Amino acid sequence: MEALTALFDIAPAVQQSASPASALPGSAEASAPGKSFGQFLSEAINEVNQAQLHADDLTARFAAGEPLDVHQVMIASQEASVALDLAVQVRNRLLDAYQQIISLNV
Known about the structure:
- By secondary structure, the chain is an all-alpha fold.
- Helices cover 80% and strands 0% of the residues.
- It has helices at residues 2-22, 28-31, 37-63, 70-102.
């Protein structure tokens, strides 16, 4: 978690140093107002959490005997599982990138 906090701290500096390259014509970032890396990551984590909560809710309602289709419950569960797997892979890539940046000789 400390590594992610450090990434949040360096993300604005990286964005500022990369801004001339992103201002190229035809760049999607040139026309859209920019989000910070921390905001983007926070929104993605919230989406994963919402998928997990939705799957848990459907599972509990199905177990309580509400008239739900099994495929709805399974699809929600699989969507939450895939979202969590993606979040874990992104975290792993971020940690690898952070470790590589830290190990650079200046």
